[in-house]
Design a protein that fits this description.
The complex is a heterodimer of chains A (280) and B (255). Chain A is mostly helical and 280 residues long. Chain A has 12 helices and no strands. Chain B contains 11 helices and 10 strands. A 6-stranded mixed beta sheet of chain B has the order 6-7-8-3-9-10, with helices on both faces. Chain B has a 4-stranded antiparallel beta sheet with strand order 2-1-4-5, covered by helices on one side. In chain B, strand 1 and strand 2 form a beta hairpin. Classes of the chains: A mainly alpha (280), B alpha/beta (255).
Chain lengths: 280, 255
Amino acid sequence: MNKNLPRRLGKDRAATLVVFLLAIIPMVPLFLILLQLVMKGATSLNLQFLTSLPRPPGETGGGVLNAIAGSVILVTLASVMAVPTGILAGIYLAEYRDKILPHAIRVAADLLQGTPSIVIGILAYAWVVRPMHHFSALAGSGALAIIMLPVIVRTTEEVLVLVPKDLREAALALGVPRWRMILKVVLPTGMVGVTTGVLLSMARVAGETAPLLFTAFGNPFLSWKPTEPIDAMPLVIFNYATSPYPHWWRQAWSASLLLIAMVVLLNIAARLMARKIGGR
Amino acid sequence: MRGAMEEILKTRGLKAYYGEQEILRGIDMTIPRNRVTAIMGPSGCGKTTLIRCFNRMHEATPGARIEGKIWLEGKDLMSMNPIQVRRMVGMVFQKPNPFPTMSIYENVLAGYRLNGIKLKRQEEQRIVEEALKKAGLWDEVKDSLRRRGTFLSGGQQQRLCIARALAVNPRLLLMDEPTSALDPKATRRVEELIGHLKETVTVVVVTHNVAQAGRVADYTAFLYWGELIEFGPTSRLFTTPQDPRTEEYLTGKFG
């Protein structure tokens, strides 16, 4: 027995090393992306880039204020549409688990989550852009809302199902009607988790490009109107990167770095919220 | 004993089902007012189901239903709205279940606040103090009423749940194995508390612990396989059981 021990310890070490190396591999692309973005994008990422509008090709300077504002507006509008709807649908799925309709909705939400975002963009084009005869922030945020919806529905459901049965019974036994029990006990108890889901869905759509290409379209000027075309960070990156101007290429890198930073911030916020659940 | 007992709750031919499964097979029982009644019996005999009929919580489970008659203070419980019943009949559960999003203060007031009943601040403070005193928790928490109820120890949490149930002045307090999740010391405190409670409220306590029934209850019911085998003053039931099954259970031959 004992003379095998060194050999087995050696095998153990080798296996640990292999697993460690394999675990590192997924991190490599992420690290390379960040390295590339910082190297190419950090140089033109300055205050002017954040606070001024684009200048015509040939002129240097200028920024992406229109796209920053546009992304904020698009994601906010999309949240206004998707958050209440998604949370209410999630409550329904969590509370009525054994019926056929909730099951169908659950499957539909999962299918929607797997639908390519360009298809959802085409849908918004056909339903909003065509009838209105022009591109608009409304069409873009509608497409983003459809992408957010299944994420919010399913996370809300998952979080609310985890709320202990004890708490529901405690409320019911006090003579609380079921709808009040759901609104005043179940939802507040799962609120941190629901918020985490909402933030993650916002982070996801903040980087979506395809559904905005023929809905929000892009706009080199600052626009606040939901009925007008609007710019967005991913659109700027797409348009600048495919342009023939080296100055715009550099700005595309900076915009990429900025977009990644925005998404990472949303993710960190979601993680902090999630940690708060664990601490309960 | 002690003259004629006044009844608060009565059942006739009470049957309870989960789907097709019959859990209670026709219970005739009378609960005396301002006394502690223990319901004991082996696991799965229907003890918990029985008290969950008394506040219509049994029907909150999908597929569950009740047959037979229950009267609370002479009124037909089965024809009342379950929500109304539950405001008159309080319940304390096996595991302490204070609301984690609420402070101690808010937990005690949950029966009002969750039902949208608005109270004056002074009124609120009076109710909170009174309920926590009745539950024997006031001295321990009076300086930390704004803290979350979940920061308390298990035994304190259970007494908080008792205070929450008492705050709405129930006619009847149901306790479903209230000490099974507590350590011996916390168990003793809750048992002492039950003894004091009967001055203001009728208590029905489910227990699988024979000794606990002996310690806290004026009356004891022995339930077996969905039937009420024997019911009477605890001292009589424990010393001269009429049914051989009661005797076997008391002496630990089964259950």
